[in-house]
Amino acid sequence: MAPQQSLSFAAWITLLSLAMIWGVSFLCFALGLRELNVYTLVAHRVFWGGLILWGFVFALGVPRPKNLKTWGALLVMGILNNALPFSLIAWGQIHVESGLASIINGSTALFAILIAALLFKDERLTPNKLTGLIVACVGVCITIGWQALLNFDIRSLAQIALLGAGFFYGCASAWARITLKELHPIMSATGMLTGASLVMVPLAYYIDGTPSFDLMPITFAAMAFLAIAATSLAYLLYYHALNLAGSGNLSLVTLLVPPFAVFWGAVVLNESLPSSAYIGFAVIALGMLIIDGRVFKR
How many domains is the chain built from? Predict the structure, then answer.
């Protein structure tokens, strides 16, 4: 990751807004899972989120794909970037705290950098990137805990599932660069959520049965936030942030999300994380700063 230019005030506000929204999404997963099964909750998120974005597509006159190859690429993107990681995160949060889930999910940037280095000539690992990746990987191990690596149980499996979500996000980033770079960003987001819906809605119906809407108000609120704010609005903010800050600076979001998630997990869910989680997050953040290079260059 090459050094980036300084961020403007508008870019910082956009990045912080995106981090705050995604930080709250971990809380909403935890709240929604009190009444809903994993696949049903994910199906609600991608279906309603995609439906809202279709409104933007038609209202703004965004060009739509005209060939099956692009629609096929969007289907794969929906599986890699939504269906699989959302399901893994939701299942993982059944067994681990929302704040810890957000910290482990910060591995997304590491997987994206590593996968890009393997696939693209202009993304090769530099000494800074390699050193930062090693440091950040140590941070992930500290976060998960050495005991979890030695004594394998359901909590360990949940943390591996959260790492898996980061891996699929990294794969999705590479897939988008290969297949969707000519597509309008809003159409990309809308198409992949549509693809995810085509997978998750039938899967949720088959595994969880007919969805019930006899739910508590807090569950409806969690579902609404996940679909509207954490999906539709977040993708619009994401591409706005990409224009303002650039792809390199956008990786800073991975460092900004966990503090918000940990805060809301502590306040609303009364979560208390072990000290290793905070130490691990600090080491991951150090690794990301080494990869970025700007702080140490100064």
Answer: 1
